[in-house]
Amino acid sequence: MTSQSEIIEIFWSLLGPWQYLYIVLTFLPNTILRLLKAGNIKSLFSWSLLKHAWFSAFWKVAGPRIRQRNGPRITALLNGRVTNARVVDDQVTPGVGGVVLDIGPGSGSWVDVYAEVRDGGASIQKIYGVEPGFEAHGQLSKSIREAGLEDLYEILPVGVDALEGVKVKGDHYRDQQLRKESVDCIVSFLCLCSIPEPEKNIAELYSYLKKGGRWYVFEHVRIQGNRPMQLYQAFVNIFWPHFVGGCQLCKDTGRYLREAGPWETIDIAQPPEEVWHQTVPHILGTLTK
Fold this sequence. Notes:
Elements: H1 4-25, H2 28-37, H3 41-44, H4 47-78, E1 82-83, E2 86-87, E3 98-103, H5 111-119, E4 124-130, H6 137-146, E5 153-156, E6 167-169, E7 175-177, E8 183-189, H7 198-206, E9 209-220, H8 227-243, H9 253-258, E10 265-269, E11 282-288
Parallel strand pairs: 3-4, 3-8, 4-5, 8-9
Antiparallel strand pairs: 1-2, 6-7, 9-11, 10-11
Helix pairs in contact: 4-5
């Protein structure tokens, strides 16, 4: 029998997404005022532009907080110390290194983690940040400078579908082209929820990994194995993308990753501390090609 305390816990858990959306909503009035003061009438009369400005204002506050809350396990993940979504003391898989594709870095909330693992001994040759959103490049460049990664990190202003053949800076800053099966590692943190055609584009990203290459994942995903919670998540998702920058709650990202191509090992799972009534569950771990 469910105790009163458990009922209260479930209630607040189910209410959580609506509280989150309310917090996002509180950023809208100031966003409108800021656009008015700037004379940006175009954004005020374009719902897509207004939504983007609104979410950007929110994410400047929320992004660093999410980064801080999840920092230790992300550092452990990139150091190869995560298995079955649990942080362990010993390395169980090789850490991030070589040529890295950083998918959807946005304004760079996670960029400093590369400096942290590099300073801890990771042998990173180059990081290519795949970020088609030009409006994020200014803050992303600032984050790269603040992390001291100007020599390693290059922004690629294209989407996944335009990666092949894009010009990049290779060894000794010589121009070269990005090719399939040329990347040692892919990193995606809370970004695959908003990419278009995720099944197709995740398979496309897979093709850039070398054999033995690794994909480090921290993403939120569709609820599995609980039909009532799946329906509730789908209901929340009617509203969620309009508040949270196009983010989709119900993408089956775990399946898309598993089916992207042949993997030598798949070690991704839901963190054990996440409860069955969590509307926004995650997967954490590594896939090795």
